[in-house]
Amino acid sequence: MQHAARRAGAHLDLLRPLQRRFTARFLMLDYSLVAAVATVVREGSFERAALALHVTPSAVSQRVKLLEQRLGQVLVVRGQPCSATAAGLALVRHAEQVALLEAELAAHTPGLAEHAGATTRPTLAIAVNADSLAAWFVPAAAAFATAHGALLDIRLEDQDHTAEQLRQGEVLAAVTALATPVQGCRSVPLGRVAYVATASPAFVARHFGRGVTAETLADAPCLTFNVKDRLQDEWIAGLLGAPLAVPRHWLASSQGFVDASIAGLGWGLNPRGLVEGALRDGRLVELVPGRTLHVALHWQHPRSAPPLLQHLTDAVLAAAREKLEPPPASPRAE
User: Fold this and answer.
1) Spelled out in words, what is the top-level CATH class assigned to the domain 124-334?
2) Would you put residue 160 in left (φ > 0), alpha (ψ -120 to 50) or beta?
3) Do the beta carbons of residue 128 and residue 166 sit within 8 Å?
4) 71: Cα separation from own chain's centroid
5) 195 has which bridge partners?
């Protein structure tokens, strides 16, 4: 009983920010109304939310309006797609946390589990960088979803910025380059991704016939994922000892990076695991053989993680051990 009480107390910690936000009104929430708001935000429209909830769009609209009237503030910004206001986002987070608690209760209460259907399956929102998703994360997600029947909302963000979504409460966990734990979270080392600068043999012959120098790099187009992607700049600075302005092709796709490199569009940093085959058969070559840029990744999640999130953590750690280089030997950041 004491163990159960401690776990229940830990789960209540997840709800306290919302309790402070809504004070006495929190206790009067009608969860059919909360579910309507959360579903509209998740699905992006009232029509798709109606399909998910098995009601009419008019019924969904009425529920959202009723909750907005009761709380005295707008919760959903109507548009294409619909989005949540700050107050609406707090409710969505609350609904996700309640779903996790209900899933745990159903797992230990057979009578409830018999009545649990697809509409009660919890959705875990997590932030992952695109290269991790392409190189190693999907097997972890599949193993977890298959074993536990939960749904995932995987949000793509640069590894240097995923922790911000965790800090803002937009996701429950994140793959991040940030080792320092976000407040209230645990940071677990996952391992290192080895990045290599690659291009097609024809591209290298065309642009780097005189070697990889500041002059040739300043003329050769490089591939860049988006404005948050600093990998190419870090590689250049490490090679030359100083930053360098270079021409860029913008391409927000991990597989697109590989395909564009092979096609000769430009050069770019690719995870070695994604380009091993192309390097082996000669479709790609390294700009500077043996020069590798390592990026250490961490998995951050709340300290008081519910069991379902812990199961996801176990799957993520298992996949990382299989696919990533071991993290440097150092004390684990807590």
Assistant:
1) alpha beta
2) alpha
3) no
4) 31
5) 271, 293
